[in-house]
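Researcher: I need the complex structure. Ligand is 2-acetamido-2-deoxy-beta-D-glucopyranose. Inputs:
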Amino acid sequence: MIRPRKPVILLASVVCILVVFGIVSSRNEKLKAEIQEEANHLLYQWETLEKTSKFVHKENYTSEISPEPCTVINPLTNQFFDLRPLGALGNDGLVQAWNARGYDYGRNFSIGICSTPLKQPQSLPESDFEGVTNKSEVGGYYTDTTGHKKSIGQISTTPKFRGRKLVLEYTDGSVCEGFKNDGSLKKSTILSFVCDREIMTKASISYVGSLHDCSYFFEVRTIHGCPTAAKKDDKAIIWIFLFICLCAVAVFFGGGFIYSLFKYNQGRQSVSHWKSNSFTAGVKNLAQVSQREEIYK
Ligand SMILES: *[C@@H]1O[C@H](CO)[C@@H](O)[C@H](O)[C@H]1NC(C)=O
Ligand SMILES: *[C@@H]1O[C@H](CO)[C@@H](O)[C@H](O)[C@H]1NC(C)=O
Ligand SMILES: *[C@@H]1O[C@H](CO)[C@@H](O)[C@H](O)[C@H]1NC(C)=O
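Model: Output:
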């Protein structure tokens, strides 16, 4: 066997110390999150690369990467966004309602993200959500001055990017009043998501404004408005760790092999015509090295 010499041991220990240092420093939450995000981004890019190379000959490029409900891929950066933790989809079906103060509008809003904010939509009185086709799909509402609930749009589970802006649109809510038509105009809502890593809560929804009591606009500040990993949360970091370990092992053994080969060659050169550059010589050399080591035992 080839025994590793001093410089090799030194090199290997330096690599090990670096690895340990890397792991220890990655306990720092922020750094860890950043490393993870970067790793996940790389993984994700690799996956989409695989997918696109598979489907490169298909005509409909955009439709073939169809993300799960309430998730979206930014077509500009290829980053993955997951809004599921803000609604029932990411909370085992538990209803999650977000409240937004209406200020000058005079009404407060209750909004669900990708799922309804209503706990028991079917047991509501008839007068609530009049004209709405399915009360289970109300995405947001307010209670008007007469005490009746009005839908500001039915849920959608397909967030999308408008340029750099991540938006979710709810349409087909309660009928807009005050319009001289057949009542076909329905309330609708735009939720605009803003990435906020400093926020203490999961999300904070602010009412921005409404037009003609018919369309409503909200801003949602949340960490889930920031790009994340598709799925493999912890796998990526494990793979990086394994890769570093593999490198360390390769350096350890590869270095030991080259070092002993080099040492042995130096010794041989004075007594014989040694072709140090040829590959067969290297293999022969290895055999001889191990033979010699055996003799010593
Ligand atoms: C591709 O998209 C077009 C519209 O963009 C649609 O008409 C067509 O049916 C789609 N083809 C397939 C195979 O999905
Ligand atoms: C809206 O909520 C605020 C507190 O968040 C409360 O003071 C106010 O009375 C509420 N308005 C209505 C119309 O319920
Ligand atoms: C209403 O929506 C819910 C949830 O999407 C669905 O399960 C239910 O079948 C719908 N009801 C009707 C009458 O369409």
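Model: Summary of the prediction. The chain has a mean pLDDT of 80.
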